[in-house]
Amino acid sequence: MAAPVDLELKKAFSELQVKMIDTQQKVKLADLQIEQLGRVQKHTKLTQAEISTLPTNTRLYEGVGRMFVLQSKEEIDDLLTDKQKTVNDKIKELEQKKVYLERSVKEAEDNIREMLLSRRAH
């Protein structure tokens, strides 16, 4: 009778281990993406700060692929503001995903603990 219980626990532990490794990789990836988006955010803020010091009649160019397109200062500022909003949204989304992943691993650990405690009680 002890053998089926041991097999069941062994299976549960191996599933938890696989889930933990997978989740840790996803969390690391999310951290890297958040870090990269933070750099983009910083770059955008610096660019916006520099552009705001320029006179309104300054000719500004936006890089598009291998070419540059003449844009007004307002258009460039709007593009940078939109980019800032997009980056902020992505960072929030990634942080929520990270919290969800960590919570799912914790729940799996708790389930195995409960299983162990119930086995010991019997």
From TrEMBL:
Heterohexamer of two PFD-alpha type and four PFD-beta type subunits. One of its GO terms (molecular function) is protein folding chaperone. The keyword Chaperone applies. It comes from Xiphophorus couchianus. Keywords: Chaperone. Belongs to the prefoldin subunit beta family. Binds specifically to cytosolic chaperonin (c-CPN) and transfers target proteins to it. Binds to nascent polypeptide chain and promotes folding in an environment in which there are many competing pathways for nonnative proteins. GO terms for cellular component: cytoplasm; prefoldin complex. This is Prefoldin subunit 1. Pfam families: Prefoldin_2 (PF01920).
